[in-house]
Amino acid sequence: YRAVAESVRTHLPREGCIGSRNLGDAQRALFHYFANLTTVREENAPIDQCVALLVQYGRQGFEMRAPAGWEVVWAGHRRGDDTERYVLYVRNPR
Prior knowledge:
By secondary structure, the protein is α/β, with parallel strands linked by helices. About 20% of the residues lie in helices and about 30% in strands. β1 (about 20), α2 and β2 (about 40) form a beta-alpha-beta unit.
């Protein structure tokens, strides 16, 4: 996870919260450890004010199309692992 976390870190906004969707506890801990990235879990709290959204996709259901109001700024996965894919979205300016 080090390479993935370091890669996404270069695309994170400097300010504002980062929401997350479908990110497991182990992955959340590893992103925090390797990239000092703490996310607001969409499952537990509203992410309306977050400026970015990190989403974990599985092998199925992976689609690069951004949700309404967001744009893709980064996508990645661990080398040799096609079961977990990560996409970082940022909010479109209003």
